Each structure stands twice: as C-alpha cells, then as structure tokens.
Amino acid sequence: METMMSVLVGILVTVATYLILSKSLLRVILGTAIMSHAVHLLIMIMGGFSRDSSAPLLGEEAASYTDALPQALILTAIVISFGVTAFFLVLAYRTYKELKTDDLTKLRGHDDNE
Amino acid sequence: MNNLLVLPMVLPLLVGIILIFLRPFVKVQRVISFITMLVTFGISVYLLVMVQQEGIVTLDFGGWAAPFGISFVGDSFSLLLVTTAYLITTITLLYVFSTIGKERENMFVYPLIHLLLAGVACSFLTGDLFNLYVGFEVMLLASYALIVLGGEKAQLRESIKYVLVNVFSSFVFLIGIAYLYGVLGTLNLAHLSVRIAEVGQPPILTTIAIIFLLVFSLKAGLLLYFWLPGSYGAPPMSISALFGALLTKVGIYSLFRVFTLLFYHEPGITHTLLGIMAILTMVGGSIGAVAYNDLRKIIAYNVVIAVGFILSGLAIFNPTAIEGAIYYLVHDMIVKALLFLLVGATIYLSGTARLEQMSGMIRNYPLLGWLFFITMVSLAGIPPLSGFIGKVYVAQGAIESSAFVLLAVTLISSIFVLYSLLRIFRNVFWGETIISKDSMIPMKKGMIIPCALLAIATLTLGLGVEGIASVVADAAATLMNPEIYIDAVLNQGGV
Fold first, then answer.
1. pLDDT at residue A51, as a whole number
2. Tag placement on chain B: N or C end, fewer CB within 10 Å?
3. Which of A35, A99, A114 faces B171 most closely, judged by CB atoms?
4. pLDDT at site A56
C-alpha cells in the first residue's frame, strides 16, 4: 500500500513539474494544484499506515493504531492550498484581462515595457 | 506558561477581521490600526523585559504539554524581532496614512497589514514546525494581496512570479516537514532537537536539513533572490518598506532557528553551504546594487546584500558572530524600512525613479537629504550609528573562526553598499537643483515625520547599544546552547 502510494506521489510530482514548467499560466496553476495533492499524499505516507492498524481511540484492544496527526496536518494544508489556489486563479484572470496575455514568456517585464 | 505570549499574534488577527467590517470608515480604520500596533508593541516590550528576568516564556495551547500540543515559545531572539517588527509597523503606518491613497484604503489595506503582522508574529513565536508553515502561509497570503493591491500592470506581472515562487517553496517546505515527521515522528522544535541529538544527525537528516535550507533561502532571498528585486519594486513604497523590513527577515529567523536548534551537528556540510550561499548572495547583490539606475532596484538589491551579510554570521557559527548577526538583523529591519520610506518620498517629490533625471534635491528638501545621509552612513556601518556594532562582531567572529574569505567578502560588500547609496546621494541630492522654487511640491508632514522617527530609532540603537546588549547576548546564548530552549519547552517545572 505504502509502496503504491509512493509511486503515485512520484507520478503526480512528475506531472506537476511538467505543467509548472509550461508557458501557459493556467497550466502552471493546475501544476501547483497537482503538486499540492502529491505533497499531501506524501505527508500521509510518512505518517505510516497499514491495513492492520485500527482507527485511533475507538477501542483499546487493537494491536496498533493509525497515527492521527498526519491527517490533521493534511487537513490544515489542504485548506491553505485551496485558499492559495483560489487566489492564484483570480490573480491569473485579472492579469489576463489587464495584460491581454497568459503567456509567461511575455510576462517577464523589463524597464521599458511597463 | 503565560497567556500574554499569544497576544502579538491574536490581537492583530482579531482587529484585522474587525477592520474588514469597517470598510467605509477610513478614519476609524486608521485610528484603530495605529492604536492596535502601538498596544501590541507595548506588549512585546513587556514580554521582552519579562524574558530577561524570568527566562524563556512558553505557552501550551489548551494545556496540552509540549511535545503533544502546539506551543508558543518566546525567547530573547524571537521577542526582539517581534518588538522590532511592531515598532517598524507602527511608524510605517503613519507613512501609509498620507501616501497610500483613497482607493487602496478602501480596499482593505489596513486589515491586510494586520494579517501580515499576525503571520509574522506567529512565525517568530511558534515552537512547532508545522505551525511555522501555517504562520508563513498567513503572512504570505496577506503579502500576495498587498503586492497586487491597486491592480497596476507592473504589480500584476510581478505578483504572478512572486506567488508562484512562494507557492512552490511552500510545497517544498511541506515535503521537508513530511520527511522529518517520517524519520523522527515529531514536529515540536525542542523535541526534534532532542531526537536529532540522540541519533547524531545521520546523512538522511543532513539531506532534510538541505531541503529546509533551500526552502528558507527562497523565502529569505539567500542566493535564490531572483524574484525579490522585481516584486519589491511593484507595490507602493510604504508596502515595500514593510516587505523589506519583515518578509525576508522571517526567512532569516527560520534559518537561524533551524540551523542552531535542529541541524547543528554537521556544520562542515550545512554551515559551509550556508557560507558559500551567503558569499554568492553578497556578490550578486553588490553587482545588482551598482548596475541599475532605478532607485527601487538599487534599494531592493541592498536588501539582498544585507541577507547575505546576516547569514554569513550564521555560517561562521560562533557566539560572537551570532551576536553580531542579531545586532545587524535588528538594525537592518529599522534601516531598511527607513531607506524604502525615504526613497518613496524622493520618488513622490521628483515624480521619477530614474537616477539621472533627478538632481540637487537637498536644496529644496534639506531634511530629506540629511535623513538619507544618516541612513547611508548607518547602513555602511559608521560608528555612532546602529550598523557598526553588528559589523564589528561579525568580523571579529570571522577572525576567531579563521573564515577569512567570508570576512573579506562581507567587508567588500559594505563598500558596495556605501558606493551604491553614495551614487544615489550624489546624483539625487547634490548638484544643481532642477526644481524651481515655484514648481516645488511641498513635502507632506506625514512623509517626513515617520522617516525622522525611524532615523531617531537607528540613532538610539547605535548610541544605546548598552541597553540591548544584555538582550542580544542572551539571545545569542540561547541560540548557541539549544539545551536552554529545550529545557524551557519540555521541562516546565510543574507550573
């Protein structure tokens, strides 16, 4: 289970990196969104889990319990990354309206092309 | 346990939320925000004095003892920075009142400043790595909004890069947290320090240390400063002043915390890397500071040089150098805010940010010119002013540790700082004036008074070094001896 998830995280990071490196602003934002999922899954794996361990604090006789902390951490991180992604999308929309382009190579900005 | 410790974070947070509902009443917003900042400054001073008498103050939220709950830890180092941050914000607010303009005041600039400060205070005071991430995000989200507020083309363009770089580095931060949790099973800084000391920092932990080095370097502008000059030039100068004084300093604070409390067992790898990065930062910053003719770019590169300088103190890693770095950190927060505000006033009065289009402004605005002169010599480190003592200590620490390359680069970079600012002073303030007495824009009181206050602050810091010497010595001692911090957090004798 953990191995499979690790592979999944790897694939997600690959996809995210590819998207973040592209020219179009929207693809870049999608890339950051996918990256956030990869990172959250990574936190999950790092907490460690297996099918044998039971949910925390529902009974006292289980052999091992799942660590609840990574889930709390992910919950916080998800909320934050939702907020940031929403802000980023609005920012991209405003930039597109204002500057008439979503091509990052044209958004470099020099002193003369204000 | 002391509940006061939460106020520097909670007070601006709550007031910031209240201010959102007072949107149409600009005057009320001004009064409330100024009073809040002043009160919070008072509380931080009180806490700082208390720490001197009673040792490190901690607060475990909800009564859950340290490794299990979230705790706030106020030692001399973090409270010194919190106090300086609030001092600067209080004074900068006066400047914001008169320069920011109606549109921005109506679009939540004061609530955003409050939220920014809440994030900064949370990052300084927290004793938990994940909470540090949350503090960072609160601060960054407020800064994203502040940088784009107004919606000018340059602001939008620069903020896209700024947001992207910071979002990416936040994910790398989370990856670092995940690995650290996977290896050590805790996120409390003190507890982490204990566990790392137990296993003696094997290579896996050094690798994680380098991930954190990367993340905080991006936030502090150490070597990875490519995003900094553009984005600090985009918003109005009063907002840039807050950014220059606070944002990079939170990254620097985190580097200090992580590399003195957690990963101090392999200085040969991590601190050497820090030293190399600091040298490259100072070289790159110096080149940038003399290369541009745009005032905003010149001072943004001056921020970069200062980051390199402060972190060379951490790279040298002996008590003298750390003490010097702390002095310089406090000095730099004040003087960088002052520099940004002065340049903002200059740009406002002359209507341009190009060096070659200004001349002889000291004839029309003598006070502004002399304040700039004070700032310049203060940054260059001329004795009665505040930059001197930090430079001396860092240089002395470098000699003690025989880090002669770092010593040479730090001293040469000071010359570049002096040269780049002297160039501004010569071109902008000296020479024949090109503004006639009739077409002269009158100086606003709200612009010059905050600058004068900050100049007084740098003078007081320089002349009254004795006053904070014990605080800085205590901060350096806490940083160099992690046991003090661990003891305060994990073994709170009964109370």
1. 67
2. C
3. A35
4. 67
